Amino acid sequence: MAGTRGRGAAAALLAALLVLGVSGWFALRSPEAGGGAGTRPSVAGNDGAAGRAGRAEAAGTSFLAPRPPGPLADPLLVPGLRYAIDAFLNDALEAGATEDPQEIKRRLRVLADRHFAADVRERALALALRYVDYRAALGSVPPPADMSDAKAVRTAMQARDSLRQQFFEPAEYEALFAEEAALDRHTLARMEIAGDRTLTASQRADAMRAAEAALPEPLRAARQASVAHLAAADQTADLNARHADDATRHAERSARYGEAAAQALARRDEEDRQWQRRLDQYQQARAATGEGPALQQLRQQLFTPEERLRVDAALALRGAGG
């Protein structure tokens, strides 16, 4: 039952991230990650994976490195641009908590030479400034009332896409969002297949396989990794349901995934415990004092700017038994 609840909560979150591209300001941490106030947020897109800025380097993209010899259509609009922009914004946010777009833009202008080589710096900065405006405007896109309603999710996605097209040229849109758009289409297709009650079990399985095959190969590989992540999440839910101690958790995880993964999952457990303790403190204070300046001050003290974006959702999941 715990695993089923965990998958249900994950599905609702996935739909939310799918619609808004991690809505509001920079909600970059996955819901399970927790993390204490002042912790550096990891760069993540709508798949919730940590450290996505590093993926740009892994893909061979470095915006500070000298350009290789030979023709290059555009040294800026290349795979990894989204992660480079996210890392740039993370750097600006580390200068201190703020939700003021103009202050973030000021910081970006100061930090540009740390992130981009001279031949692309001016264009990259201009793109990042528009990206800030886009992220601020994204708050005007209302989420679906029912995250399990594929039609409502599609409508919200279309509104988000229309907003992106207002801020970015087609080539910029492609460089920034093409990978995410492919994953969005795939996830939406899976939602629609799962919700189609006219399909037999065999037809549904065939449709799911066809949706998987429609993904570009690199994204299929990434999805396989995400499936492994879900398996680890199910195991964690089972361990939680059994109130397993740390030694049991480590033994079962290392037997299934290896020592390094078991240690990483143990760190995740501790981060989640810290997150839950801070949620407890905030929830108790809200019950005792109600909304007001004191509660807002506590919210600022307990949570990073990124975490504040998901406090209310986390408490709502608690109330729903998630």
Shape: globular
Q: Tell me the distance between the termini.
A: 11 Å
Largest sheet: none
If helices are DSSP runs of H or I spanning 4 or more residues, what is the number of helices?
13
- How much strand? under 5%
Domain count: the total is 2
How much is the radius of gyration in Å? 21 Å
Question: Which parts are unreliable, with pLDDT below 50 for 5 consecutive residues or more?
Answer: 1-62, 65-71
Structural class: mainly alpha
| Helix-strand topology string | HHHHHHHHHHHHH
Q: State the helicity in percent bands.
A: 55-70%
**Taking all residues together, what is the mean pLDDT?**
76
What's the total number of strands?
0
What do these coordinates show?
- By secondary structure, this protein is an all-alpha fold.
- The chain folds into two domains: 2-239, no CATH class; 244-322.
- It is 69% helix and 0% strand.
- It is built from 13 helices and no strands.
- α7 (170-195) runs antiparallel to α8.
- The model is unreliable at 1-62 and 65-71 (pLDDT under 50).
